[in-house]
């Protein structure tokens, strides 16, 4: 199996977040990013998950709520990259795609549009 410690993977996620343009990160509101080893059992191939209320759906009622949650999953990402014959560079690329994909959900962009943009 493609080996990467949890700490190394977390660093890749942090680096991907650092590559998000500042004009976009300034617009992000009430969202936290986490790394987990494995996704829920009902979706074992899930690379990332956005849970929350997208910015486009928030209104005056939106106050005092817990932060939106973006989770990036280490295990399925490493397994997928290994199946594709990849190395660390493929993991770096896939983590960046997944981070952008989940942040896009925070901005209200749906999967169909993300697939069209190459972030599916």
Short key terms for the protein model shown above:
120 residues; 3 strands; globular; single chain; alpha+beta; 5 helices; 3-stranded mixed β-sheet
Give a description of the structure:
This protein is α+β, with helices and mostly antiparallel strands. Helices cover 43% and strands 13% of the residues. It is built from 5 helices and 3 strands, in the order ααβββααα. The chain has helices at residues 6-18, 22-25, 74-83, 88-106, 111-116; strands spanning 31-36, 48-51, 68-73. It has a 3-stranded mixed sheet with strand order 1-3-2. Helix 1 packs across helix 4 (88-106). The longest helix is centred in the last third of the chain and has 19 residues, at 88-106.
Rg is 15 Å
Strand order, largest beta sheet? 1-3-2
How much of the sequence lies in strands comes to 5-15%
Number of contiguous helices: 5
What distance lies between the first and last C-alpha atoms, to the nearest angstrom?
A: 24 Å
Averaged pLDDT, please? 93
Helix coverage percent = 40-55%
Unreliable spans:
none
- One letter per element, helices H and strands E, the order comes to HHEEEHHH
List the helices and strands and how they pair.
Blueprint: H1 6-18, H2 22-25, E1 31-36, E2 48-51, E3 68-73, H3 74-83, H4 88-106, H5 111-116
Parallel strand pairs: 1-3
Antiparallel strand pairs: 2-3
Helix pairs in contact: 1-4
Quick rundown:
This protein is α+β, with helices and mostly antiparallel strands and 120 residues long. It is 43% helix and 13% strand.
